[in-house]
Amino acid sequence: MMITHQPTYTLWQLIVYFLRLGTFGFGGPVALVGYMHRDLVEEKAWISESDYKEGLALSQIAPGPLAAQLAIYLGYVHYHIRGATLVGLAFVLPSFFMVLALGWAYVEFGGLTWMQSVFYGVGAAVIGIIAISAHKLTTKSIGNDKLLWGIFAALAAVTIITESEAAALFIAAGALVWFIRCKPRWPTSKLSALAAPVPLQQIALTTATDSNTLIQIALFFTKAGAFVFGSGLAIVPFLYGGVVTEHHWLTEHQFVDAVAVAMITPGPVVITTAFIGYLVAGVQGACIAALATFIPCYLLTILPAPYFKKYGKHPALIAFVDGITAAAIGAIAGSVVVLAQRSIVDIPTALLAIGTGVLLWKIKSIKEPIIVIGAALIGLIVYPLMH
After folding, report:
1. Which of 125, 131, 142, 332 could form a disulfide with 356 if both were Cys (CB 3.0 to 4.6 A apart)?
2. What residues form the membrane-spanning segments (predicted)?
3. Which of 118, 93, 102 is nearest to 275 (CA)?
4. Which parts of 303-367 fold into alpha helices (H)?
């Protein structure tokens, strides 16, 4: 069990906080984890600095959406499995219901000019948002480390060339940094733990050929939740490779729209999996995709939580996290190029993407939802003129 000081808040208070954050928390994973620190550590003092940092470290090393995992961990700190479960649901459900509504509207009205116009503008703005997010993550996490920059560049190139993401390369990147920095002398049997996820991934790839679409959705999104490292944006290249290239569930245009939905809704970015599931198989598909994505990250947070407090500061683990993080950020950077090729189709969309990046770069206080709304309005005006 984790040894922590007595809570100064009730579980219900924490649930209400995460309900609010899940409903109004825009800005992506980096912003969301920042809100949690500001509110829960600095202002309310419900969570200690050390508990927050340990949760953040665990969320970085474990695959899955960063913000959702940190929320689950913070729920676990004082209220253990019950707290982790209820906090996780409170954080994810608001955006899930919003995505269901957007999925219904997209299916019902997607052929209408106004709907196409909105996504024409928002899809282009999303490229600028992801580009700036990738830049922030890169400068914050990689610094001047040449080894990490090499991993970053390699994964960016692989993502651009293959238009997909290989989970095994993330594990390999972590193992490489661990090996170079720590120069381990362990028996080879202990190294097998680092490669454990790869056979599971191969099993998922093999069985995902089942003809039943719902089973395919469950298997694919379980793999997404279990093998995608880094922030929520890291799932974008992985989803593109599976949803568009492998299974052909969505067109490239629909996939960019799905990423746009993730940007215009609050809460975790990976909730876009529910939108994709809805487009493929309706409400059933949305529920299965969401559950398959979040259950692995839930389990991979609560199961190691009692032990991570003891071993989280071990140099070998820190090195492994650094390698995985560099690989994840490289994949995000590569996904910017892949998605830009699909979203930037003419001069107005190019200007929108560039303008979004410039605004976020120059005006630090501007919020992504404001840009998204502005892009949607521009799309409503420009799209009918261009088509």
Report:
1. 125
2. 12-36, 56-76, 83-106, 118-135, 147-180, 217-243, 255-277, 283-305, 317-338, 370-386
3. 102
4. 305-311, 315-343, 347-362
- Contacts of residue 307, defined as CB under 8 A and 6 or more positions apart, other chains included, come to none
pTM of the model: 0.68
Surface-to-core class of residue 111, CB atoms within 10 Å of its CB (0-12 exposed, 13-18 middle, 19+ buried)? exposed
Range of the domain at 379: 110-296+309-386
Q: Are 124 and 343 in contact (CB under 8 A)?
A: yes
DSSP 17-41: HHHHHHHH--SHHHHHHHHHIIIII
Q: Residue 236: helix, strand or coil by DSSP?
A: helix
- Terminal-to-terminal C-alpha distance of the chain: 61
Tens digit of each residue's pLDDT (9 = 90 or more) over 205-250: 333 334 488 899 999 999 888 766 655 566 777 788 889 888 889 9
Confirm whether 262 is domain-assigned.
yes
**In-domain check, residue 264:** yes
The pLDDT confidence band at residue 49, using thresholds 50, 70 and 90, is confident
In the chain, how many domains are there? 1
